[in-house]
Amino acid sequence: MLTRIKIGLKLEWKTHYTNWSPLFFLINEITVLTFMYFMAKAFIPKTDLFESYQGDYFIFILIGETCFRSPLVLMNSFVRNLKNLGQDGMFDDLLMAPKSLQNILTHKGIAALMIEFAKVIIILSLAVIIFKVPFHFLGLVQFALLQVSALPLFAGLGLLALAIFIKFKRGDHLVNKLASLMVVLSGAYFPVQVFPESFRQLLIVLLPLNHLVDSSRKAMALQLTFSQLIIDSLSLVACGLFVSALGYMAVKYSIVAEKKFGRPFLFRY
Fold first, then answer.
1. Which residue, 5, 133, 181, 183, is the most exposed by fewest CB within 10 angstroms?
2. In what helix (H) or strand (E) does residue 223 lie, and over which residues does it extend?
3. CB count, 10 Å around CB of 53?
């Protein structure tokens, strides 16, 4: 497995990055962080909405932005890698492979995930070095644990999106738009307390990502006890395993249907 991930990392870098990519990445992220920093100073949010969070609005949106980056890359990697395989004419061959398509795409997604997680570490480090954000090592460890706990959930969502794509040969753009809406409604950029109470409770039930970003902010502010961290992590894992099981079965059903029709795998952009 480690060998496959190592090969996947090399292929991921060769396919999507160049020798200049690290420099462009640093320039882009410093620019974005600078924009976020001064934007946060320009806006004066309603203070009573932020009473449960330590830090200013810049830290609030910084954590909201970074806590979804790695999981979303894993989620989107399933359809992205399948489209690449389809373009290379390898999809029909993979259907006959001894390993399931889900496992093959998962290994490819792990490579993209590891690169993105390294990017998140660099972004948080830049925030600490340039903008003097007071993050603590223990908070970063708790943040990382919550990120890992959320991966099964996003993998399951990615598998569901994959099943839709295999079935209809389209829909990935709609899924990406829904994912962006999901992130916004989960409180990545503003507290969900701004919504009416009934709608807020509905979001908490329908979007467990709200729980992820809220716990991540508390973890980075060292407001999360060890017992709360374990409960939150196990809750995310349990929810993720359930969604992953649904996604796995959905992909399996869509592959069976694809084999039944026996048509070449042609998708639409």
1. 181
2. none
3. 18
